[in-house]
């Protein structure tokens, strides 16, 4: 892995924390639409020193202290998580990560295949958007985040109408109440995923991700900014997500 020599940037230990956060946001602006390969390369060659420096300044290293801070709606600005782009056409500006105080959280995104192509946009504009929710439960065990996959849900929407954070949160709340009235309620994942007749290859990818137990770590977290390291399985490379608070 090629990593930028920190001495070739600036002495980041002389920067204040806000400056480092702002620099990271500046660097990743517009880059979340790049291929996963390009984003991983960008992390390795450009972002590593900034991530390393910021992780040394984490104001809340204790997991229990992170729980009340993480509640609310966050916007994932940039991420190397491969799972989020299994379905093509994700709209970054309509993607959310929502934490509720009942121990559930959800990654919700709207997908509008063809929206990036001027040629296909005219034809695709009449097609419905595809909203996807990956729901998980969170808690603290042995002073670490404990994450459990509990459901993957989908819905069709009008691509002309924005999936706002309020609408995403409302959908999340409705699903929890209807699908998980009891703490140990289970869902039939295959039934949920086949509802809109996804192709079998895509369904297998979802099933594989669903059966894993994700690992999550906040390299840095404050009230408005999160730098998250995650890993879907032990043999998989770590992924990184930069998120800012929506509310």
Describe the structure.
The protein is of the alpha+beta class. Helix content is 32%, strand content 30%. It contains seven helices and eight strands; from the N terminus they run H-H-H-E-E-E-H-E-E-H-H-H-E-E-E. It has an eight-stranded antiparallel beta sheet, with helices on both faces. Helix 1 runs antiparallel to helix 2. The longest helix is centred in the first third of the chain and has 20 residues. The protein is globular. The two termini are 36 Å apart.
Task: Annotate the secondary structure layout.
Elements: H1 17-28, H2 36-55, H3 63-70, E1 72-79, E2 90-99, E3 104-111, H4 118-124, E4 129-141, E5 144-157, H5 165-179, H6 189-193, H7 200-211, E6 215-221, E7 225-231, E8 239-245
Antiparallel strand pairs: 1-2, 1-8, 2-3, 3-4, 4-5, 6-7, 7-8
Helix pairs in contact: 1-2
- Please state the CA-atom Rg, rounded to the nearest Å: 18 Å
* Mean residue pLDDT: 84
Q: Which percent band covers the strand fraction?
A: 25-35%
Please report the number of helical segments: 7
Number of strands: 8
Gap from first CA to last CA: 36 Å
Biggest pleated sheet: 8 strands, antiparallel
Structural class: alpha+beta
Largest beta sheet: strand ordering: 5-4-3-2-1-8-7-6
Strand-and-helix sequence, N→C? Answer: HHHEEEHEEHHHEEE
Helix content: 25-40%
* Shape assignment: globular
- Detail the poorly predicted runs: 1-9
């Amino acid at each position: 892995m090629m990593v930028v020599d920190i001495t070739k940037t600036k002495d980041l230990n002389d920067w204040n924390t806000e400056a480092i956060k702002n620099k990271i946001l500046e660097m990743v602006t517009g880059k979340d639409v790049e291929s996963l390969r390009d984003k991983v390369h960008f992390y390795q060659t450009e972002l590593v020193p900034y991530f390393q420096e910021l992780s040394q300044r984490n104001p809340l290293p204790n997991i229990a202290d992170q729980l009340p801070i993480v509640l609310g709606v966050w916007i994932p600005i940039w991420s190397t998580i491969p799972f989020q782009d299994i379905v093509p056409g994700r709209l970054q500006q309509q993607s959310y990560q929502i934490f509720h105080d009942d121990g559930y959280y959800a990654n919700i995104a709207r997908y509008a295949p063809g929206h990036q192509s001027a040629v296909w946009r005219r034809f695709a504009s009449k097609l419905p958007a595809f909203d996807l929710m990956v729901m998980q439960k969170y808690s603290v065990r042995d002073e670490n985040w404990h994450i459990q996959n509990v459901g993957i849900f989908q819905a069709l929407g009008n691509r002309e109408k924005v999936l706002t954070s309020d609408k995403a949160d409302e959908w999340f709340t409705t699903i929890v109440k209807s699908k998980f009235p009891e703490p140990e309620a289970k869902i039939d994942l295959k039934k949920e995923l086949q509802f809109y007749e996804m192709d079998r290859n895509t369904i297998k990818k979802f099933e594989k991700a669903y059966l894993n137990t994700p690992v999550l770590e906040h390299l840095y977290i404050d009230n408005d900014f999160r730098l998250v390291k995650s890993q879907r399985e032990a043999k998989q490379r770590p992924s990184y997500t930069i998120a800012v608070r929506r509310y």
